[in-house]
Amino acid sequence: MTGATPALRLALDQNFPTPLIHAVAAYLPPDLELSSLHEIDLRLTRLDDRALFLTLHHLGWNGLVTNNYRMLDEPWELAAIIRTQAVVVAVEGLGHDPLRAVGALLLDLPGLANRIRPHRSNVFLLSYRRRPPRNAREYLKAIAERQGRTDSDLWEEVLVTADEFDQARLD
After folding, report:
1. For residue 69, which phi and psi values (nearest 5 degrees)?
2. 2-24 pLDDT, tens digit each
3. Taking the model in full, what pTM does it have?
4. Among the four given CATH numbers 3.20.20, 1.10.240, 3.40.50, 3.40.190, the one describing domain 8-127
Protein backbone atom coordinates (compact mmCIF):
# COMPACT_ATOMS: atom_id res chain seq x y z
CA MET A 1 0.00 0.00 0.00
CA THR A 2 1.41 3.38 -0.95
CA GLY A 3 0.75 6.82 0.45
CA ALA A 4 -0.32 7.57 3.99
CA THR A 5 -0.33 4.88 6.65
CA PRO A 6 -3.82 3.41 7.06
CA ALA A 7 -5.72 4.26 10.22
CA LEU A 8 -5.93 0.57 11.12
CA ARG A 9 -3.36 -2.14 10.41
CA LEU A 10 -4.47 -5.68 11.20
CA ALA A 11 -2.55 -8.91 10.77
CA LEU A 12 -4.35 -12.04 9.61
CA ASP A 13 -3.43 -15.11 11.62
CA GLN A 14 -2.01 -18.11 9.79
CA ASN A 15 -5.35 -19.96 9.80
CA PHE A 16 -7.31 -17.10 8.26
CA PRO A 17 -8.04 -17.63 4.53
CA THR A 18 -5.68 -15.01 3.11
CA PRO A 19 -6.28 -15.88 -0.57
CA LEU A 20 -9.93 -14.92 -0.20
CA ILE A 21 -8.95 -11.60 1.38
CA HIS A 22 -6.53 -10.92 -1.47
CA ALA A 23 -9.32 -11.62 -3.96
CA VAL A 24 -11.38 -8.73 -2.54
CA ALA A 25 -8.49 -6.42 -1.64
CA ALA A 26 -9.54 -3.74 -4.13
CA TYR A 27 -12.88 -3.40 -2.30
CA LEU A 28 -11.54 -3.12 1.25
CA PRO A 29 -11.88 0.20 3.09
CA PRO A 30 -8.94 2.49 2.26
CA ASP A 31 -8.29 3.24 5.94
CA LEU A 32 -7.53 -0.43 6.61
CA GLU A 33 -4.51 -2.61 5.90
CA LEU A 34 -4.76 -6.39 6.16
CA SER A 35 -1.69 -8.59 5.78
CA SER A 36 -1.03 -12.18 6.74
CA LEU A 37 1.56 -13.01 9.35
CA HIS A 38 3.54 -14.69 6.53
CA GLU A 39 3.60 -11.42 4.59
CA ILE A 40 4.67 -9.35 7.61
CA ASP A 41 7.39 -11.68 8.87
CA LEU A 42 7.44 -15.48 8.69
CA ARG A 43 8.84 -15.66 12.23
CA LEU A 44 5.50 -14.36 13.57
CA THR A 45 3.87 -17.69 12.70
CA ARG A 46 6.01 -19.46 15.30
CA LEU A 47 5.03 -17.22 18.23
CA ASP A 48 2.42 -18.05 20.82
CA ASP A 49 -0.49 -15.62 20.99
CA ARG A 50 0.88 -13.63 23.92
CA ALA A 51 4.24 -13.00 22.23
CA LEU A 52 2.46 -12.41 18.92
CA PHE A 53 0.45 -9.46 20.27
CA LEU A 54 3.52 -7.93 21.89
CA THR A 55 5.61 -8.32 18.73
CA LEU A 56 2.90 -7.02 16.40
CA HIS A 57 2.59 -3.96 18.62
CA HIS A 58 6.33 -3.24 18.34
CA LEU A 59 6.12 -3.68 14.56
CA GLY A 60 3.43 -1.00 14.33
CA TRP A 61 0.43 -3.27 13.81
CA ASN A 62 -2.80 -2.48 15.68
CA GLY A 63 -3.96 -6.03 16.15
CA LEU A 64 -5.05 -9.34 14.75
CA VAL A 65 -7.88 -10.95 12.79
CA THR A 66 -8.25 -14.54 13.92
CA ASN A 67 -10.46 -17.60 13.88
CA ASN A 68 -9.07 -18.46 17.32
CA TYR A 69 -11.80 -16.76 19.34
CA ARG A 70 -10.98 -19.05 22.26
CA MET A 71 -7.92 -16.90 22.99
CA LEU A 72 -10.41 -14.53 24.62
CA ASP A 73 -10.82 -17.17 27.36
CA GLU A 74 -7.09 -17.18 28.14
CA PRO A 75 -5.87 -14.69 30.77
CA TRP A 76 -2.25 -14.76 29.48
CA GLU A 77 -3.35 -13.75 25.99
CA LEU A 78 -5.82 -11.19 27.34
CA ALA A 79 -3.07 -9.55 29.38
CA ALA A 80 -1.04 -8.97 26.19
CA ILE A 81 -4.13 -7.68 24.35
CA ILE A 82 -4.86 -5.24 27.17
CA ARG A 83 -1.21 -4.11 27.55
CA THR A 84 -0.81 -3.39 23.84
CA GLN A 85 -4.32 -1.91 23.48
CA ALA A 86 -4.74 -4.29 20.57
CA VAL A 87 -7.64 -4.54 18.20
CA VAL A 88 -8.84 -8.12 17.96
CA VAL A 89 -11.34 -9.24 15.38
CA ALA A 90 -12.19 -12.78 16.39
CA VAL A 91 -14.47 -14.80 14.15
CA GLU A 92 -16.40 -17.28 16.25
CA GLY A 93 -17.17 -20.77 15.11
CA LEU A 94 -16.40 -20.42 11.40
CA GLY A 95 -12.77 -21.50 11.32
CA HIS A 96 -13.41 -24.60 9.24
CA ASP A 97 -15.45 -22.72 6.66
CA PRO A 98 -13.17 -20.12 5.06
CA LEU A 99 -15.86 -18.57 2.89
CA ARG A 100 -18.15 -17.92 5.86
CA ALA A 101 -15.24 -16.65 7.99
CA VAL A 102 -14.24 -14.12 5.34
CA GLY A 103 -17.90 -13.21 4.82
CA ALA A 104 -18.36 -12.44 8.51
CA LEU A 105 -15.21 -10.30 8.47
CA LEU A 106 -16.22 -8.42 5.32
CA LEU A 107 -19.59 -7.56 6.85
CA ASP A 108 -17.84 -5.88 9.78
CA LEU A 109 -14.93 -4.12 8.03
CA PRO A 110 -16.66 -1.00 6.70
CA GLY A 111 -16.25 1.70 9.34
CA LEU A 112 -14.26 -0.55 11.66
CA ALA A 113 -11.47 2.03 12.06
CA ASN A 114 -14.06 4.62 13.15
CA ARG A 115 -15.44 2.31 15.84
CA ILE A 116 -12.11 1.92 17.62
CA ARG A 117 -12.10 3.48 21.08
CA PRO A 118 -8.70 5.04 21.76
CA HIS A 119 -6.44 4.18 24.69
CA ARG A 120 -7.92 0.75 25.31
CA SER A 121 -8.10 -2.67 23.75
CA ASN A 122 -10.94 -3.25 21.31
CA VAL A 123 -12.33 -6.74 20.79
CA PHE A 124 -14.84 -7.44 18.05
CA LEU A 125 -16.30 -10.94 18.41
CA LEU A 126 -18.01 -11.82 15.16
CA SER A 127 -20.43 -14.68 14.94
CA TYR A 128 -22.91 -15.71 12.36
CA ARG A 129 -25.56 -18.36 12.61
CA ARG A 130 -27.30 -19.89 9.64
CA ARG A 131 -30.96 -19.10 9.55
CA PRO A 132 -33.68 -21.28 8.10
CA PRO A 133 -35.48 -19.94 5.04
CA ARG A 134 -38.86 -18.27 5.33
CA ASN A 135 -41.74 -18.81 2.97
CA ALA A 136 -42.32 -15.71 0.80
CA ARG A 137 -45.99 -15.94 1.78
CA GLU A 138 -44.96 -14.78 5.28
CA TYR A 139 -43.69 -11.52 3.78
CA LEU A 140 -46.88 -11.09 1.77
CA LYS A 141 -48.94 -11.66 4.92
CA ALA A 142 -46.93 -9.00 6.78
CA ILE A 143 -47.50 -6.50 3.96
CA ALA A 144 -51.23 -7.24 4.03
CA GLU A 145 -51.34 -6.69 7.79
CA ARG A 146 -49.55 -3.33 7.43
CA GLN A 147 -52.14 -2.36 4.83
CA GLY A 148 -55.03 -3.48 7.04
CA ARG A 149 -56.02 -6.22 4.62
CA THR A 150 -56.19 -9.98 4.64
CA ASP A 151 -53.41 -11.83 2.92
CA SER A 152 -55.93 -13.64 0.70
CA ASP A 153 -57.32 -10.30 -0.56
CA LEU A 154 -53.82 -9.05 -1.35
CA TRP A 155 -52.95 -12.37 -2.98
CA GLU A 156 -55.99 -12.18 -5.26
CA GLU A 157 -54.89 -8.68 -6.34
CA VAL A 158 -51.28 -9.55 -7.15
CA LEU A 159 -51.32 -13.21 -8.16
CA VAL A 160 -49.55 -14.24 -11.34
CA THR A 161 -52.14 -15.49 -13.83
CA ALA A 162 -51.60 -18.60 -15.94
CA ASP A 163 -51.38 -16.46 -19.09
CA GLU A 164 -48.80 -14.12 -17.51
CA PHE A 165 -46.77 -17.11 -16.34
CA ASP A 166 -46.82 -18.78 -19.76
CA GLN A 167 -45.99 -15.59 -21.67
CA ALA A 168 -42.90 -14.81 -19.60
CA ARG A 169 -40.64 -16.99 -21.75
CA LEU A 170 -37.70 -16.05 -23.89
CA ASP A 171 -38.12 -17.64 -27.29
Report:
1. -65, -15
2. 456 678 999 999 888 888 899 99
3. 0.79
4. 3.40.50
